[in-house]
């Protein structure tokens, strides 16, 4: 029986995908539940598993664009059963294998065994290199030219000077060297070994380029970023935050948190918690513009930007106002795992009301994040760096982080944006207040 392999649906708005990679070859035996290939859409990358045991027949090759529901291959379930019977048939049913006859190349001629190897021929002794000849002292040469002529042992009478009053310049010497090198190498062209390919190429040929089509995800990212720049009045405000109390709290409870919840305590859950508390005070930042209306949300679906090899994706942690910090950290771990295994669904990326991106994991000191439309704001975290700051009129070294809030000025005023970012700073610098919700 043949089982058709179809491209699965990943969402109502997605009509086609690219078959990015086959994990199996045509004719391979596959098992039910085994990953067969990867598809890429403009939003997600997804692995497709086998629905049965059998022999795979591929009808669509890698790199082709296929419609949702299209058949890209078949699985012959009877082939798997036949192979199982053959494998368990026993030694008695298998025909005896004849020993392969020795090939003519393997046999050694009797004459070869009787002849002794010829003694190695010693190379002729190398002649000592001649010392470079100095140019005549009466010839007027610049110091750089005189040094070059002496190093190469050149006869200056053979060099045509093009400088003032017929003087020899360094360029004249270099041209003479190129001409003599070409003439000297011509008779030896047959005996000389071929030059490496990189040396044989002309400078124009060596500067090659290549073209590669953009993946659907990269095309989608480009379109969304351009849309955000063109269709929003985006502005960014900055602040810095002292991380020493959050870092101290994390160090103090890290082990007990891991033992109780089975997940590590990171910084992202602190910032998600702080953002939710600040968004409650500034509902416009958690709202969308829809035509001539503003859509307010009474829930807080936080998008967390995660970089992948194929591009940036923003899975959404839903109802963060109801989650504990352990729930948030576990959700992030689960999303990272799904991204690595190409199991991220389209539903995981939809419905966010606010986004947080952490460029600090890549070493970014400061940046202006672009809005994740239709959202009205995005918070950018950056690397933690020790800097001297004034604390109670004294200079202290503290772990500081720059924060950036990009927002849509059509719906969010500067006062609200600055106050919102300052509120996040207060929560992070006093995490006890945030946890106690005061």
Task: Note down, in words, how this protein is organized.
There is one protein chain. Helix content is 31%, strand content 22%. It is an alpha+beta fold and 438 residues long. The strands form 5 sheets. Strands 9, 12, 15, 16, 17, 18 and 19 form a 7-stranded mixed sheet that branches. A 4-stranded antiparallel sheet has the order 1-8-6-3. The chain has a 4-stranded antiparallel sheet with strand order 5-4-2-7, with no helix packed on it. A hairpin with a 2-residue loop joins strand 18 and strand 19. Helix 9 packs across helix 10.
CATH architecture of the domain at 218-436: 2-Layer Sandwich
For CATH, the homologous superfamily of the domain at 218-436 is named as: Chloramphenicol acetyltransferase-like domain
Q: How far apart are the termini?
A: 66 Å
The portion of residues assigned to helices is 25-40%
The largest β sheet comes out as:
7 strands, mixed
Question: Strand-residue fraction?
Answer: 15-25%
Q: What structural class results from the helix and strand content? A: alpha+beta
Describe the secondary structure blueprint for this structure.
Elements lengths: L1 E5 L9 E7 L6 E2 L4 E6 L4 E5 L4 E5 L6 E3 L3 E6 H11 L22 H5 L28 H10 L17 H16 L11 H4 L2 H4 L9 H16 L2 E9 L1 H18 L6 H14 L6 E3 L2 E3 L6 E3 L1 E3 L2 E3 L2 E2 L7 H16 L13 E5 L18 E5 L2 E8 L2 E15 L5 H16 L1 H6 L2
Parallel strand pairs: 12-16, 16-17
Antiparallel strand pairs: 1-8, 2-4, 2-7, 3-6, 4-5, 6-8, 9-19, 10-11, 12-15, 13-14, 17-19, 18-19
């Amino acid at each position: 029986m043949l089982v058709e392999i179809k491209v699965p649906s990943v969402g109502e708005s997605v009509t086609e995908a690219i078959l990015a990679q086959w994990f199996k070859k045509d004719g391979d035996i596959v098992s039910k539940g085994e990953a067969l290939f990867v598809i890429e859409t403009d939003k997600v990358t997804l692995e497709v598993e086998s629905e049965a045991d059998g022999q795979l027949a591929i009808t669509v090759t890698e790199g082709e664009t296929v419609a949702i529901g299209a058949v890209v291959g078949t699985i012959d379930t009877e082939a798997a059963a036949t192979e199982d019977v053959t494998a368990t048939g026993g030694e008695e049913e298998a025909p005896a294998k004849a020993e392969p006859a020795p090939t003519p190349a393997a046999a050694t001629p009797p004459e070869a065994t009787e002849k002794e190897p010829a003694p190695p021929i010693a190379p002729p002794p190398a002649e000592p290199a001649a010392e470079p000849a100095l140019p005549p002292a009466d010839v007027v040469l610049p110091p750089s030219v005189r040094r070059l002529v002496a190093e190469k042992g050149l006869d200056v009478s053979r060099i045509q000077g093009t400088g003032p009053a017929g003087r020899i310049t360094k360029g004249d010497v270099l041209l003479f060297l190129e001409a003599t090198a070409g003439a000297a190498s011509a008779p030896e062209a047959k005996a000389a070994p071929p030059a490496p390919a990189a040396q044989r190429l002309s400078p124009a040929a060596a500067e090659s380029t290549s073209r590669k089509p953009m993946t659907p995800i990269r095309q989608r990212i480009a379109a969304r970023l351009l849309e955000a720049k063109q269709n929003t009045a985006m502005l960014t405000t900055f602040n810095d935050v002292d991380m020493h109390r959050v870092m101290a709290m994390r160090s103090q409870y890290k082990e007990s948190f891991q033992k109780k919840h089975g997940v590590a305590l990171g910084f992202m859950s602190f910032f998600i918690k702080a953002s939710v508390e600040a968004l409650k005070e500034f509902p416009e930042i958690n709202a969308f513009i829809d035509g001539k209306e503003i859509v307010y949300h009474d829930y807080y679906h936080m998008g967390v930007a995660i970089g992948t090899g194929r591009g940036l994706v923003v899975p959404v942690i839903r109802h963060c106002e109801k989650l504990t910090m352990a729930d948030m950290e576990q959700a992030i771990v689960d999303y990272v795992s799904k991204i690595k295994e190409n199991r991220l669904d389209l539903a995981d990326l939809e419905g966010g009301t606010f986004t947080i991106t952490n460029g600090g994991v890549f070493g970014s000191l400061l940046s202006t994040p672009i809005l994740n439309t239709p959202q009205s704001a995005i918070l950018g975290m950056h690397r933690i760096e020790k800097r001297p700051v004034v604390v109670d009129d004294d200079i202290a070294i503290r772990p500081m982080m720059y924060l950036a809030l990009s927002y849509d000025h059509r719906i969010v005023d500067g006062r609200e944006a600055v106050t919102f970012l300052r509120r996040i700073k207060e929560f992070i610098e006093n995490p006890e207040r945030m946890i106690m919700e005061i």
